From TrEMBL, chains A, B, C, D:
Protein's name according to its UniProt entry: Inositol-3-phosphate synthase
Myo-inositol-1-phosphate synthase GAPDH-like domain: residues covered: 174-272
Organism of provenance: Plantactinospora alkalitolerans
Superkingdom classification of source: Bacteria
Pfam families noted in UniProt: Inos-1-P_synth
């Protein structure tokens, strides 16, 4: 019988809620629905044990991980399963670089550190990566802050024989995935794109932050869809009543034979945190497997799961 | 400069209207919009000359091809271009097998015979194929009647050094193409399909025939989408005011991580005859090129353009 | 405190399931959501007691009403509330007119008989009306079979001092309601309708019957929407996986100032049986109130709740 | 035969383009499509002559009105009709109050002044109203700047025997009209609103201004839809490729009987300037008729055509 992977997590937001609850859900129900890979190197989706958790919100620190994930502003729904206590009290997250050793100490016994905090705090992301290095733990950066795509960091992890995965998680099934698939299909079939738009609406705290502090980087990434300025992305809309659901409206106007009109309108509704957890579960197992097999540095298998893997611009 | 392909056509319905008008449109405008392949073996999309046309409707017989394509019940719109007379009077189509020689005679000078009549008259389709054989002309069967997937016919064309293409044209961009792309994407990303439906609405005479005489074959083909009974196809709806437009409503309900709900709703609007003409233009050039290069039998290149190519069940 | 209305029901399908469960739901939760009128003449939505139930399906006869409503082919979902036994065993429904007295006997103690069987059996509907007359009970006909719009029947109930309500229940919120509202809005604002369509998809047994035996009457009623042939109704589509949900796709194409295009696309998703129960709850209270106040014949108040009230064509 | 109304216009943007072209279109085609009222006090929709036009854009000043309406950033499409020269050169618009007399002089011969500039310049709007007063001309304020809802201005026009109409044109058919109709319908039928959202996308210069300088006033007006915080309005999205089209996506989630779910999704596509012109054509005729009948002040008939008629808050 396989030894479960021992995981520490930074950030106790909606994505962590979806991950922690989902693992319990699959363990209890035996369901395989919504899972991309049943096993990775022998590890099933419920072969994960949480051994440490870090958060900055005062309200969450000190609470058991399985309670903290339901505290506001988290609004990912309660899945339909029992959730036994993890007996993992949430620890105060790192505020300055002087605390790296404290964090490294708290990682004793962990195999993988999943960095799942909000994007935009590069120094913090790197401090946790440093702690992972010191503690001999694999590191996964799900934020857009450059860690794994910085050659210096890859080199350090490689030398230490530790896996480093990142940057910027690609959702299992989100607007970009669907929009790109439609645009690609159009092209394959020889149709000519006239115009296309995308509107994204969401109700999580992360979404609200993104709306209020639109990062040029995010925007430019969205715009990367753009084929010769034919694709436009409307501003994100924060609608609290959507909760952890994300709604996207897509439109594609094209021309077929004789320049006759072809039009496509699509509405997509997903739970954003599920899209993250569905990929995190694979990353955790890839990282644990690489660590156990003594493969340091970046595991190639992780590439399709990130928007900015090593080799992309910082 | 390349010699234009000389084409005869059976059936002067909407699909032929889209083909004839589109060729004139591209010749005049130089546009490349909506075209899958600019050239095939040197032949551009407007390197086609019509040299004969057959129809059964009394009203169309005797009229120039460029007039007949606008007669009712045809309702494909008039494209925005001049349409010079073809000087090809529509000839009375074949009614019984005794007329094969008459048709063969009328094919003098043609390189390709495009069979673009309604599906469901296998004997007629084969009589035209026979005429093509006698006249030394390549044959394209766009209907679901079994010709090219009957090994005996392939053999006869192969021996005669003539290309034979078919059966059952796959539209350039239709409901099946889009529905399949979405279902495939879902699977690739590891989501679990819960249910899906498809409704098709159209306003052409062909569509009305299909609604009134639903062929089991068509239905079973639609049902081929079905992944373990999860996909349902609603009955076709004939709505005259749609004209040559086809509208499809698709819905996909799925589960992501933790069995949370993912839903997709899509509306597609296309001109059905454009979808056919956009593929016919490739088939004509593949057939002419094969003929000119002395390749008899089935050209492998045509396979993705048919729903029932050789090797599929009759 | 008001005396609860004592109700007998004919037909133990989805609509009865929604009605019986909903009454228990509102009694237990105190919720007022989804209710059109909190009270009618003092009667709240949970002031209903079932005292008899008739069905023809062998499987349902003899079972308690609160169990029979969950038997196949019923597929209305289980509402989130406790459902105490009604202690009303389902009685074998009337098969021929000779049984009217048996039914009348079984109505002892009832104030209102709700006829909620499938449409299309006029003789049966009238036999139950006859039984109601003999038992001194108010009668509600929710089917399209002509009872209340037949002047002879109204006269008989009037003379007996008993209320008679019908025919053909108008749903609380269905496709027609929404489609008509949009077409009316268009007209009010001076836009010109170009074309409109409606497609209805459903997954109940009633829906399947309607698809397989399309009644000219139903179709003509749908077509009544038609403003000078501008509105087209596509054939109903039975999609089993929809369960008791109904999905409608509506499209409206119109012209505004300068004949510029205006288009509207709408998707509606409802539980059909809820739409029926939401109106039945008002009819029951109107009928009980009229009976208690000695008002025989047709209560004017019921008119907006039927598609074919007295005065409309038979 | 009726004497055509003589109209001066301030602002030569998309709305004026739609108005000027539409009048020519209806005159030429005799069509009545898209028109709310064929005649008002004998005046048909093409019984309008333009006698003066004011604009601030240097490029437009000096050009004939019928040319200036096609200059950028205007992007309302060219209607399918001839457009004879108006022989009305666009005059430089008023910049400061000292120019009121110049404008009043230019209004000689006009009966109505239509103020159709962008909202947000109250002093300018009032200066034009002053000029109308001095010239003895009726005044229509289509902007949200308070003129007609300021009692002092109504009084001045009343004393002068001149009509004053405003403020803030209500579109003939826009998002608010449709959204309100759906919410009202829900309420009428007794359903309970759970949540609703609205997203508006547009491609005109006006739209871009609104996106870049979101006026609290506009926002609060949109929010006026809000029934107890159940309705949320997403930020406006400027998508240049939409041109003068506006696209809105609406969603309504509600509860019916037993709190079962009801959902509505709607996409609306309109030409915004047509929605304005379709109302302006009525306002012009109401104003001309009132002037000719000697009715000064606010004509009650205009009330439903404005969002902020007299009596609403400033």
């Amino acid at each position: 019988m396989i030894k479960r992977a021992r995981v520490a997590v930074v950030g106790v937001g909606n994505n962590t809620s979806a991950l922690v609850q989902g693992i319990a859900f699959y363990r209890q129900t035996g369901s395989l629905a919504g899972i991309n890979r049943a096993t990775i190197d022998g590890l099933g989706v419920s072969d994960i044990d949480f051994v440490a958790a870090f958060a900055t919100s005062a309200g969450k620190v000190g609470r058991d991980l399985t309670e903290a994930i339901f505290l506001p502003p988290n609004n990912f729904p309660r899945l339909d399963c029992d959730l036994p206590r993890a007996d993992v009290p949430v620890t105060k997250g790192l505020v300055d670089a002087a605390e790296v050793d404290r964090v490294a100490g708290a990682l004793a016994g962990a195999e993988v550190l999943l960095y799942s905090a909000p994007s935009g705090r590069t120094e913090t992301a790197r401090a946790y990566a440093e702690a992972a290095l010191r503690a001999g733990v694999a590191f996964i950066n799900t934020t857009s802050d450059p860690v794994a795509r910085d050659p210096m960091w890859i080199e350090r992890f490689q030398e230490a024989g530790l896996p480093l995965l990142g940057d910027d998680l690609a959702s299992q099934f989100g607007t970009s995935v669907v929009h790109n698939a439609l645009l690609r299909l159009l092209k394959e079939r020889g149709l000519t794109l006239v115009s296309s738009y995308q509107v994204n609406l969401g109700g999580t705290e992360d979404f609200r932050n993104l709306v209020e502090n639109p990062s040029t980087k995010e925007q430019s990434k969205l715009n990367a869809l753009s084929a010769a300025d034919k694709v436009q992305v409307a501003p994100l809309g924060y609608l609290s009543h959507l909760g952890s659901q994300k709604v996207a409206h897509l439109n594609v106007e094209a021309q077929g034979w004789g320049e006759t009109a072809v039009s496509l309108d699509l509405k997509l509704k997903v739970h954003d945190p599920s899209g993250a957890a569905g990929v995190n579960i694979d990353l955790l197992r890839i990282a644990a497997s690489a660590l156990r097999n003594g493969q340091g540095g970046y595991p190639a298998q992780a590439t399709p799961l990130f928007k900015s893997p090593p080799g992309t611009a910082i």
